[in-house]
Amino acid sequence: MDHWRPETHTFHLRTGEITVTLQDMAMITGLPIDGNPLCMNTDSDGWRAQMHALIGMVPPEPRELEAKDKKKERVTAGAPFTWIQSNFGTCTEDANEDTVKTYARVYMWYVISKTMFTDGTGKNAPWMWLKALTVFDSKWSWGSATLAYLYRQLDEACCRPSGGIGGCMLALSIWSWERLPVGRPKIVKYEDWDDKHDPLRRPTWAYKWDVLNETMDDPSVMYKLYKSELDAITPEQSESDVH
C-alpha cells in the first residue's frame, strides 16, 4: 500500500506507474467487462423486507449490547456468512424450480461477497450485492464493478492508519505475481486443463497459480524485504508496460 496513489489509482514505482486494468481483471477472473454498468441505489432502508421477499428469510436482529459503557456496533445491511451457510448450505434434490433459483441466487451472493467485493472483515455479505442479483439475466459488467471496487478499497486502505483491506485480493495477488518479481510464490505444478476444447470452460489466467509453495516467514520481516525490492525494481524486471 505504500506505493498506491488514490489520485491516479496506480502504484508509483521508481520506473513509473503500474496498475490493474480491465483486461487484467477479465483474464484473471473470467468476469465480463462488457455489459450494463452495475449502478444502483445503495440505500439500505427496508432491506430486511426486500431480502425476505427475494429469498424467503432474513437474519435475526442483532442483540443490543447490555453494558452501557460499550460502544454500539454498526449493524451491517446484509447477512453473516455463517447464517447463509446454516440456512442455504444444501438444496434438497426434490426442490422445485423456484427453490433452486433461490439457492442459486444466495450461492452467487455468498461467492461474490467472499471473493469479488470483500470488505476486509470477512464476516458479512452486504445486502446490495444480493439486490444486484434480483434479475439473473441482467448482464451486469461484473469485471468493471470488481475493478472499480478494488480501486476504492485500495484508495481507502492507503489513507487510513489501521490495517485491513477489501476488494478482490485474488485478482490483485495474481496480477502482482505475473507483473512484478516481488513476493512471487513458486508454482508447484501446472496440470493440463481437461475442458480446453469447451469455450465456456477454458481456464483463466489464475489457473497456472492453482498450486503454490508459499512462504511462511514472519510477515513483518517479509514486508520490509518486499518494500525494499519494490523500491529497487528496474524496468527490465516488470512484466508489463510501466509508464
From TrEMBL:
Pfam families: PMD. This is Aminotransferase-like plant mobile domain-containing protein. It comes from the Eukaryota. It comes from Triticum aestivum (Wheat). One of its GO terms (biological process) is meristem maintenance. Transmembrane segments: none annotated. Residues 3-238 form the Aminotransferase-like plant mobile domain. InterPro entries: AminoTfrase-like_pln_mobile, MAIN-like.
